[in-house]
Amino acid sequence: MKLTLRVWRQPNADADGAMSTYEVDGISADMSFLEMLDTLNEELILKGEDPVAFDHDCREGICGACSLVINGDAHGPERTTTCQLHMRAFEDGDTIDVEPWRAAAFPVVKDLVVDRSAFDRIIQAGGYISAPTGAAPEAHATPVPKPDADSAFEHAECIGCGACVAACPNGSAMLFTSAKVNHLNVLPQGAPERETRVLDMVGQMDAEGFGGCTLTGECATACPKGIPLPSIAAMNKEWLRATRKARKVGR
């Protein structure tokens, strides 16, 4: 395959960026999208040019590091992570636009790399439990109803890639935050911090400058792990419950 790539190049956070055009040839349909970018970078290095900076780690769709907007879609035309997107999703001769996540809370570091530490701070605000550490408890020591266990597992699948934010027209992080709140709040181990967790994590999300949620649903459509849109409603319910309880105790 021979492709034309229009790639966002930005030397640092303070500089202006622009799209640069490159031609790549000999691309196998079985390559992943990141392998195709590796091929581009090898050619740029041989020419003495600066390679394109982009995030990646496991390349197995698990870590959430890869983060690209491809032809206007977060992670590209298929519902998967960028590293698991293969070039057979494109046609020979295609022109492909490659950009970083676009959100005020995700400032560009260089080229296609953005700073997603805002997600880390949201998790630090309440994404933990106070269960004592030590020897592993007996698996059945704390009974968990299967619907609750299924819900916890479903929300725990979030890999924190940020596609939900990139796809949202408001740059909202509600789907990510709801996944991190709900997967602990439905479990008995998360009960001690149930109220403080949702209040603190939503408060930190707002402090990071993410946009407001208007339930357009683009976040759930773009999520490569299928976090459901009703997750946001469940978190809103938790937030209202915690707010009312806090008012009663004068918090």
UniProtKB/TrEMBL annotation:
Keyword terms: Iron, Iron-sulfur, Metal-binding
SUPFAM superfamilies per record: 2Fe-2S ferredoxin-like, alpha-helical ferredoxin
Coiled coil: none
Residues annotated as domain 4Fe-4S ferredoxin-type: 149-179
InterPro entries, per database record: 2Fe-2S_ferredoxin-like_sf, 2Fe-2S_ferredoxin-type, 2Fe2S_fd_BS, 4Fe4S_Fe-S-bd, 4Fe4S_Fe_S_CS, Beta-grasp_dom_sf, Helical_ferredxn, SDH/FRD_Iron-Sulfur
Cofactor: [3Fe-4S] cluster; [2Fe-2S] cluster
PROSITE patterns reported in the protein's UniProt record: 2FE2S_FER_1 (PS00197), 2FE2S_FER_2 (PS51085), 4FE4S_FER_1 (PS00198), 4FE4S_FER_2 (PS51379)
Residues annotated as domain 2Fe-2S ferredoxin-type: 1-102
Pfam families according to UniProt: Fer2_3, Fer4_8
PANTHER family noted in UniProt: SUCCINATE DEHYDROGENASE, SUCCINATE DEHYDROGENASE IRON-SULFUR PROTEIN
Family statement: Belongs to the succinate dehydrogenase/fumarate reductase iron-sulfur protein family.
Protein name: Succinate dehydrogenase/fumarate reductase iron-sulfur subunit
Phylogenetic placement of the source organism: Bacteria, Bacillati, Actinomycetota, Actinomycetes, Kitasatosporales
